[in-house]
Structure formats: structure tokens, C-alpha cells
Amino acid sequence: MEGSDIAEEVRPARESIAWSPGRETVHADSESPPEVLLEPLFWGLFSVGGFITAFLFPVTLFLLFFAGPFGLWPTDPGAYDAFVARWQEPLVRLFFFVLIGGSLFHGTHRLKFMLVDAGLKGRGVEAFLDLGLNGIAIFGSLGALYYALRGWLF
Fold first, then answer.
1. What are the φ/ψ torsions at residue 18 (nearest 5 degrees)?
2. What 8-state DSSP symbol labels residue 63?
3. For residue 105, what are the CA distances in angstroms to 2, 23, 49, 66, 118?
4. pLDDT in tens, 77-109
5. Residue 24 lies in a domain
6. Which residue in 34, 33, 46 sits closest to 114, CA to CA?
7. What confidence category does residue 136 fall into, taking pLDDT thresholds of 50, 70 and 90?
């Protein structure tokens, strides 16, 4: 069909049907980036800690420190004995371990990125922040685990 206005152009391979603007073409023979193992784990702990810090921590603080003095929760001298008796239950111990550990991981992860955004940049500085802040969260969580298991398992 000579003279037709609709003619098929010959386009480069990257503009084929499979090409998607804004995305890089993936080649099977190219070298893949190194696999990251620990970062997804810490992002997961950050996420769980964010949920705990946003929803469970304020309720726990309210019940333990504000509801009693304002008369919204029954208080009596025997309440401490009731709390200690409840502390022996595994679910209560698990709750406080997850509350403390999750909040620590969330807070230290957020603090790390706040410090990086404030200007503490560089490979060595970020590695030091990772090591230091995640160490604080890990040791704090291990301390909470120790107190959760103390008197229950040993």
C-alpha cells in the first residue's frame, strides 16, 4: 500500500511492547547486586516496633500510670500483689517483652535515620550507628527477655 499514512516504523528493541518507561531493562547476563540479608530483618523489626509503639505502648502507659490516679482504674493496696500474680502468667511476660523490645528496635532505627538526615553521613559513620544503635536494641531486648523468663523458666 503505497502512500498510506499508517506505516509501521522500525523501532529499537528497548521501545518494544515489553518496554516500560521509568524502569530499567533487565538482562539475564548482567551481574546482580549483592544480596542484602540483615536489612530486611531490621526493617521488619522497625515495622513491628512502630505498630507496638503507636498502639500498645500508649494504652499500657495510660493503664499503668494515669488511669489509677484519675480514678478510672481501681486502685487498692492489694493491686501490687495482683500485678505480681499476673506477672507470673506467660502471656503477660510475652506482652511486656514484645512491648519493650519492639519499642527499642523502632526507636533506635528511627534515631539512626534521624541522625543520618541531620548530617552524620559516610560509610563508617552509618556502620557505627548501625552497630551501636542495633546493639542497644538487642541488649535491651535481651534484658527484657531475661526479666520475662526469670522466675518462670529458671
1. -80, -10
2. I
3. 70, 33, 6, 25, 20
4. 666 777 778 878 888 889 989 999 989 988 998
5. no
6. 46
7. very high
Lookup result for grid cell 553521613 = 121
Q: Which domain holds residue 136?
A: 38-149
Note the pLDDT tens digit of each residue in 39-52. Answer: 888 788 788 888 88
CB neighbourhood size of 42 (10 A): 17
Q: Is the pTM of this model over 0.85?
A: no
How far apart, in whole angstroms, are the C-alpha atoms of residue 87 and residue 55?
21
Rounded (5°) CA angle 6-10-13: 135
Query: DSSP H helical segments within the chain, as ranges?
Result: 38-51, 57-61, 79-87, 90-117, 123-149
- Cell numbers at residue 149, please? 523468663
Give a yes or no: residue 28 inside a domain. Answer: no
CA-to-CA distance for 63 and 66, rounded, in angstroms?
A: 6
Residues 6+ apart with CB under 8 A from 60: 99
Grid coordinates belonging to 74: 481501681
Would 128 be classed as within a structural domain?
A: yes
The CATH number of the domain where 125 resides is what? 1.20.1300.10
- Is 80 inside a domain boundary? yes
Mean pLDDT of the chain: 80
